[in-house]
Design goal:
Blueprint (H helix, E strand, L loop, with lengths): L8 E5 L6 H9 L3 E7 H8 L4 E5 L4 H13 L5 E4 L5 H11 L6 H7 L2 H10 L7 E4 L6 H5 L4 E5 L9 E3 L2 H11 L5 E5 L5 E9 L2 E12 L7 E5 L6 H18 L4 E10 L2 E8 L7 H9 L3 H9 L14 E5 L6 E7 L1 H6 L3 E6 L6 E2 L10 E7 L2 H14 L1 E5 L2
C-alpha cells in the first residue's frame, strides 16, 4: 500500500510476538505500518510491515535511537510503543512531532519506580513507605522498624530483581549482594489481594476501564501466574478504586493511550504498586478483547492515530483468564496435560515456552514460566472452573539441576 493510498502511517516502536495484533489492527484500518524492532525478531517483523529499522540493542536509549532514525526516513502520523523498554523512545518522538501519546511526563515517570514514588507521595496517593539507595546497608535502621520490606530495581519488568525480605539478617544479605551497584527501591510490604486496572484513555478521559484479579507465586519473587478480567468489586470498594485510579492518572499527567495500573486492596484502601503506560503483558489485551467484545489493540491504534472511537461497551460480554505457570526449580523433564487442556471447550489458546532440558532457577522471573493458556466463558463461574481445570491438568515435571 502506498502512502497516498493509506489512511496514514503508524510507527510501531517494538513489535515482538504479542504486539503483532497491532499490525493486524492497523492494516484493518487501512494504515501503512513501519516498525523499529530488535535483531532477533527483525526478519519476521519485516515480512509484515512497510519499512523496518533494526534497533542496535535492547536499552531504552537504543530503542529511542531507532525511533528517531525511523522518523528521519519519513514522518509518521502516529507512534505506538509495545514493551516497557519502548516507552521512552516512543514518547520522545510523540512529544517532538506533536503526536498523541501518554505525555512525555507520564512516560518518563512510568519507566522509573523511584520517580513514581516521589510523584505520588507529593500527590497524596496511598503507596508503600520507601527509600531509594545505592547502599542498602545504609538504610538498615529504617528497614529494622518496617519489616518486611520489598527490594526492587528502579526500572524493570516481569518481577525481575524483586525480593521480599522478612527479617533483618536476610536484608543484610541482600544489602551485601546488591550494594554498590545500581540504585534500588526499598519499600514496606503491603498486605492484601492484588489487582490491576487497565484503561484506554483519550485526551485525559477514561474511555473504557477494566479490573483484573491477579495471582502470583509466593515470596520472595511474586511472579504473576494468573489473571482474571472483568472482575466486579463490591460497590463501595469499586467506587473507592475508581477514585484512586483517577487520582493516579491526574498526577501522572496521562493524555492518550493504554494504562496498566497495579494496586493492592490493603486494610486502609487501594495502595499503589506501580503504573505503566504501555501494552500490558501476559495476554491481557487478548483477555480484554474476549471480555468486552472489542479489539483493544485496534482501540490503541485509533488513539495513537487520532482516529474516532466507537461507543464503548457497557460491560462484559464474556469472562476470560490467562494462566502462566512456573515449574518447580530444576531441569524440566516433561510437561504433561497440554493436549487435554487444548481440548477443553473454554480454552482459546495454549502453548509451551519451556522444553525438556530447560532450567528453572530457584528464584524465577516471568521469563521462567513454562507455558500459557487463555480461557473464555460466558460466566465468571465458567471461567473459574476452566481455569481450575487447566491448573490441575497442565503440570511440569523437573529434576534437580
Amino acid at each position: 500500500m502506498s502512502r497516498a493510498e493509506s489512511q496514514g502511517e503508524l510507527l510501531l516502536v517494538g513489535v515482538g510476538m504479542m504486539g503483532q495484533p497491532y499490525v493486524t489492527a492497523a492494516r484493518r484500518l487501512g494504515l501503512r505500518v513501519r516498525a523499529v524492532e530488535g535483531a532477533a525478531r527483525a526478519a519476521h517483523v519485516a515480512e509484515q510491515v512497510d519499512g523496518l529499522v533494526v534497533s542496535r540493542g535492547t536499552h531504552d536509549e537504543l530503542w529511542a535511537e531507532g525511533a528517531w532514525a525511523a522518523a528521519g526516513q519519513g514522518r509518521p502520523d502516529g507512534v505506538l510503543p509495545f514493551t516497557e523498554w519502548n516507552v521512552t523512545g516512543a514518547a520522545l518522538l510523540q512529544d517532538r512531532l506533536g503526536l498523541p501519546g501518554p505525555s512525555l511526563h507520564a512516560a518518563t515517570v512510568s519507566r522509573n519506580k523511584a520517580l513514581q514514588r516521589g510523584l505520588f507521595a507529593a500527590a497524596g496517593i496511598r503507596q508503600p513507605e520507601y527509600v531509594v539507595t545505592d547502599d542498602p546497608a545504609a538504610v538498615r535502621d529504617w528497614v529494622a522498624t518496617r519489616l518486611p520490606v520489598v527490594v526492587k530495581p528502579l526500572s524493570s519488568a516481569g518481577s525481575a530483581g524483586v525480593e521480599l525480605v522478612a527479617d533483618l539478617d536476610a536484608f543484610l544479605d541482600v544489602a551485601a549482594r546488591r550494594g554498590g551497584r545500581a540504585p534500588v527501591l526499598v519499600e514496606t510490604a503491603v498486605e492484601g489481594p492484588e489487582y490491576s486496572w487497565e484503561a484506554l484513555v483519550s485526551d485525559g478521559r477514561v474511555w473504557l476501564a477494566n479490573t483484573t484479579a491477579k495471582e502470583t507465586t509466593e515470596a520472595p519473587s511474586f511472579v504473576e501466574v494468573a489473571h482474571r478480567t472483568g472482575v466486579r468489586l463490591d460497590a463501595g470498594t469499586a467506587a473507592q478504586a475508581d477514585e484512586f485510579c483517577a487520582a493516579v492518572l491526574e498526577a501522572l499527567g496521562m493524555r492518550s493511550g493504554v494504562v496498566h495500573l497495579e494496586y493492592r486492596l490493603a486494610a486502609d484502601g487501594p495502595t499503589l504498586m506501580e503504573v505503566a503506560v504501555r501494552t500490558p503483558g501476559d495476554y491481557l489485551m487478548d483477555l480484554l478483547g474476549l471480555t468486552y467484545g472489542i479489539d483493544w489493540f485496534e482501540m490503541a491504534v485509533r488513539l495513537a492515530m487520532s482516529m474516532p472511537l466507537p461507543e464503548p461497551p457497557t460491560g462484559p460480554v464474556g469472562y476470560a483468564a490467562s494462566y502462566l505457570p512456573v515449574a518447580p526449580p530444576g531441569v524440566v523433564v516433561a510437561v504433561d496435560g497440554l493436549d487435554e487442556v487444548r481440548a477443553h471447550p473454554s480454552v482459546v489458546t495454549a502453548g509451551l515456552w519451556k522444553q525438556p532440558g530447560d532450567v528453572v532457577p530457584p528464584t524465577p522471573s516471568s521469563a521462567d514460566r513454562f507455558g500459557h493458556v487463555v480461557v473464555r466463558a460466558d460466566t465468571p463461574e465458567g471461567r473459574d472452573e476452566a481455569l481450575e481445570f487447566v491448573r490441575r491438568t497442565l503440570v511440569a515435571r523437573t529434576r534437580p539441576a
